UniProtKB/TrEMBL annotation:
Its main location: other. CDD domains: PBP1_sensor_kinase-like. This is Ribose transport system substrate-binding protein. Residues 49-302 form the Periplasmic binding protein domain. The lineage of its organism: Bacteria, Bacillati, Actinomycetota, Actinomycetes, Propionibacteriales.
Length: 335
């Protein structure tokens, strides 16, 4: 979705947009935009942005933070602070509360889980702080804008790939899910499960939560291998869990009889694109980190005093053996 710059004063923009430019003053009277002009200082202003990250143990999330840092360096008016919740909902709530106390000008958050973070995100939003939600959603609509991939579509594309290319004659699938309570976990499962219905000979015979982590994906797969002698494909909700599953299968001497697919496709040496290129994964699907888009949205809100879309959905694409090397070279020319 493309945003349109509106050359109006921030107060006018805020009157028609659910959340315009931010302020640390309390919103009153039921309007989400009361007093919103106070933080719109334009190019002459200085702005503190708080980034609340679900965890940095996942390479995807570390890359998201790195992309935000790199993009923010191009905006001299921005000072970005980072907090790592380490997959702890209570800590992430406390991190956001701390940002509110510090009177930041804008909050960027990638929630660990949706429901536990909804109230504190709403609290920030109701205090006039613009909130950009990345990747994982919260409940309700008390935020300025969401930026992320369409996880149902990504799961659907993965399901179609399995049904049409990896197992056209049917077979047994194991699913390694992300963190329960995180919206991408449910959506990636839903899209995949719906897509493989097109091939009635496909069956998900077992599933386990790997919490997005390589080590847990490996330990869960070790147990699944012992319980299931016939596995044809492992569908993991991200590349680190897919790599962990591959390592478990290799340790059991079964890696050659099983195909592995993941999601993220980070263009880094330890990422999914290289894993496809080197033959450990059959495929991965790109999932943008949304970092540069988040900073662009912050710039529109705080410097341009313009509106941003309520939802900005970024596309995915299949990475397999046919395009992995070319994609990696293009997205990481330094190697």
């Amino acid at each position: 979705m493309r945003s349109v710059k509106i050359p109006l004063a921030c107060a006018a923009v805020a009157a028609v947009v659910l959340a315009g430019c931010g302020t640390t003053s309390e919103r009153t009277g039921g309007s989400p935009s009361d007093g919103a002009a106070k933080s719109c200082k334009g190019a002459d202003g200085k702005y503190t942005i708080g980034m609340s990250q679900a965890n940095v143990a996942e390479p995807y999330r570390q890359r998201m933070d790195d992309d935000i840092r790199a993009a923010a360096k191009e905006v001299p008016q921005f000072d970005v602070k980072f907090a790592d919740a380490a997959q702890d909902n209570a800590k992430q709530v406390a991190d956001v509360e701390n940002y509110i106390t510090q009177q930041i000008d804008l909050l960027i958050i990638s929630p660990n889980e949706a429901k536990p973070l909804t109230a504190v995100v709403k609290k920030a939003f109701d205090k006039g702080i613009p909130v950009i939600v990345l990747d994982r959603k919260v409940e309700g609509d008390a935020y300025t804008g969401f930026i992320g991939g369409d996880n149902v579509q990504i799961g659907s594309e993965a399901g179609k790939y399995v049904a049409e290319q990896l197992l056209p004659d049917g077979g047994n699938i194991v699913e390694l899910k992300g963190l329960a309570g995180a919206t991408p976990q449910a959506e990636r499962h839903q899209g995949f499960a719906d897509a493989i219905k097109a091939n009635p000979k496909l069956k998900i015979i077992a599933a386990a939560d790997g919490d997005w982590l390589r080590e847990k994906g490996q330990s869960q797969m070790d147990a699944l291998l012992k319980a299931n002698p016939a596995i044809d494909v492992v569908y993991a909700h991200n590349d680190p869990m897919a790599e962990g599953a591959y390592l478990a299968a290799k340790a059991a001497g079964r890696e050659k009889s099983i195909k592995f697919i993941g999601i993220d496709a980070l263009p880094i040496p330890s990422g999914g694109i290289k894993a496809v290129e080197q033959g450990r994964l059959s495929a991965t699907f790109t999932y943008p980190t949304n970092g540069k888009e988040a900073v662009a949205a912050a710039r529109k809100l705080l410097i341009d005093c313009a509106a941003v879309p309520k939802s900005q959905v970024l596309p995915t694409r299949l990475i397999d053996k046919s395009n992995a090397a070319q994609t990696y070279a293009r997205e990481n020319p330094a190697g």
